[in-house]
Amino acid sequence: MVKVAERVEQLPPYLFVQIRQKEREARARGIDVISLGVGDPDQPTPGHIIDTLVDAARDPAMHVYPPDEERGMEIFRAAIARWYKRRFEVTLDLDKHVLALIGSKEGNHHIALAYLDPGDVALIPDPAYPAYVASAIFAGAQLVRLPLHAEHGWLLRFQDIPTDLAKRAKILWLNYPNNPTTALAPQHFWKEAAEWAQAFDTIVVNDFPYSEIAFDEPTVSALSTNRLDAPVVEFNSLSKPYNMTGWRIGMAVGNADIIAALRKVKENTDSGIFGAIQRAGIEALDGPQDHITSLVQLYRRRRDLVVETWRSIGLGMKHPQATFYVWAPIPQGMHSIEFAGALLEKTGVVVTPGIGYGNHGDHYVRMSLTIADDRLEEAMRRIKAVGQW
Ligand SMILES: Cc1ncc(COP(=O)(O)O)c(C=O)c1O
User: How far from chain centre, in Å, is Cα 157?
Assistant: First the structure.
């Protein structure tokens, strides 16, 4: 057998693959499993976006490599620039500051290849979405995890990053609204981030795919300072606001040098997004946005049900501010894998153990709200029936 590369061997087992395995085993034992594990919208893509795709797919001009290939079509990049202006009051030059992505996950991966040499330091919060760790490992980087704390609202405190570490770091990954903690970052946080990035010549990435899923406070873009001279880049995506996870379309926006470096990696890796999907993406960004209001209302209703259930079993928690997850505390003295296992045994409900996002997540589990109402209600009924922990 040919030995796989060291970088592949170093990868931690992908959390969601492990969860799916547990689900399969429980189902094989005849349990009616309800999974709150994976965050993938249960609602369909809005009809006007699908109609645009269907029409565009019939156009032979769309059947070839897309114009501008890895960069994204000019008309799609222009739609991104318009959307950023409208949504976040950020002014972007579509040639310098905008790149189409095959989902924000792609941006996270390619920025690691663009900037991290073997041994370079990559800073990743703990807890964090697991893909950042994998991307840094692929690049051979030295990973340093930065603990986040509930008492600071899960916001990274720049003053807590040791200066010598900040000087050595090349990338700091951030993600607000945050998966898994559901935290939002305010405007002053991004001002501080831009200043920190510039002071230490370190790239700050804000992975921003939950920008449209917030309940009370508005979300703030990392570029809202309009300081495009600072080494800050943001990845966003059509996956979550438009229920388009399967379509694979997103964007990188920000500092021109970073966009150029990402483009260079992409130029040598992929040939862009199917043109008809980009045309549908324009319709998503420019078209009616009212379904997002209904979507957020739907997630709010589901969130309230989960929070109320959690409180009823003696595990107090605040209402999440954003994203379609609930980051729920577990009984004191238990570990998250142990709790998730016990919950699956008692109720058939699958939740994600917080340790999958880093050691500092071990006193929490994450539940996804992207499941049909009747199944979520059934899951909460079963959890309530078990009573206090
Ligand atoms: C924090 C975070 N980043 C990126 C992604 C992937 O998004 P996309 O579909 O745009 O690749 C997800 C998906 O769950 C996510 O939670």
Answer: 20
